[in-house]
Backbone:
């Protein structure tokens, strides 16, 4: 048997195994209950914003509507982190009409901190002392009316200390449609979710700061955002800190409770992933290993299939099936799964670009340089 045939068979076998894991995770993944009883505990919603004039009104108004579904007190804390585009004026207008909304002005960024962890740290510090659950929301997220009740109920009914109901990812342009569906697919196809809840291994952690709910006491035990002050991927780092302090947490299916459009087109998508992908794998060597594995499993088989390899055809079909199953569950376009090899290749190009831009010191986000943090 030739070398290419061996690689095609290996890739197909791993692709089938990945499909099996997807099928299993789809059966066991935790999902917020939209009909759950309204929580009575004190909740604080934390929203860091910087130059979000185009979407902050939609986000905040949706949060306030979601707060109506809760039976207990809900404080909505928004921190304006030096916006220059009219965000502050929009927030002032919103705060004038709803006493539950408090707008904070961000303090200057201290040495050793990245922008988002610092903003979240200030927000958490401003929460009332009797707050029992912190819900972090990004400005590009729109909550459904029952989102807060369902999310806090998931935290309590699961017995976990941190949950991330992954919002439905909205994708319109060609680059978004190729890359954004990989977000849910990536952890659904590689991470056994129930064991991941209990495991303290860093590699067994997946989180999403777009919508993240954490028990306030567990947050303090973990050191809060001070423990992840220089982390580019602060959401995953926060989950790992919670686990190190004895807690448990995991991602969940938040398709029914929130939507998010992270990036509007190719330039924004490239810059957004550029700021963080260099830190996603632990080291350049680990990143190279992951990219090689992705190529073996999701690019090699369809290439082999074009040469007439049956194993390659099986591997390609398994990859497409896994992507399609995740898309169907998460509200994505099932037909885009046929382009899965192109999606993987574009992701690999984004990883390489991220490392290149970091090496050149040109990484920026929201007008700030992205300083090298811990990978």
Residues:
């Amino acid at each position: 048997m030739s070398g290419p045939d061996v690689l095609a068979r290996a890739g197909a076998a791993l692709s089938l195994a990945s499909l099996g894991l997807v099928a299993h995770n789809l059966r066991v993944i935790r999902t917020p209950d939209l009909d759950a009883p309204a929580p009575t505990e004190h909740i604080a919603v934390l929203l860091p914003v910087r130059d979000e004039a185009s979407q902050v009104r939609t986000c905040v108004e949706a949060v306030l509507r979601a707060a109506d579904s809760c039976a207990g007190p809900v404080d909505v804390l928004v921190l304006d982190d030096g916006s220059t585009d009219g965000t502050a004026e929009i927030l002032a207008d919103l705060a004038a009409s709803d006493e539950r909304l408090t707008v904070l002005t961000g303090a200057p960024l201290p040495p050793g901190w990245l922008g988002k962890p610092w903003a979240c740290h200030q927000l958490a510090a401003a929460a009332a002392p009797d707050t029992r659950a912190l819900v972090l929301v990004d400005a590009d997220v729109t909550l459904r009316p029952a989102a807060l009740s369902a999310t806090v109920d998931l935290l309590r009914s699961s017995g976990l200390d941190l949950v991330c109901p992954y919002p439905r990812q909205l994708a319109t342009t060609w680059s978004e449609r190729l890359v954004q569906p990989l977000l849910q697919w990536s952890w659904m196809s590689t991470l056994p979710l129930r064991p991941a809840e209990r495991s303290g291994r860093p590699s067994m952690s997946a989180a999403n700061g777009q919508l993240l709910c954490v028990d306030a006491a567990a947050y303090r035990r973990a050191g809060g955002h001070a423990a992840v002050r220089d982390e580019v991927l602060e959401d995953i780092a926060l989950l790992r800190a919670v686990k190190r302090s004895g807690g448990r947490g995991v991602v969940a299916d938040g398709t029914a409770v929130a939507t998010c459009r992270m990036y509007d087109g190719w330039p924004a998508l490239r810059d957004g992933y550029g700021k963080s992908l260099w830190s996603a794998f632990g080291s350049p060597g680990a990143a190279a290993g992951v990219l090689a594995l992705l190529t073996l499993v999701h690019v090699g088989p369809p290439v082999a299939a074009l040469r007439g390899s049956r194993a390659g055809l099986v591997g390609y079909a398994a990859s497409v099936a896994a992507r399609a199953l995740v898309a169907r569950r998460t509200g994505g376009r099932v037909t885009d799964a046929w382009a899965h090899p192109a999606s993987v290749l574009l992701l690999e190009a984004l990883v390489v670009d991220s490392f290149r831009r970091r090496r050149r010191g040109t990484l920026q986000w929201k007008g700030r340089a992205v300083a090298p943090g811990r990978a």
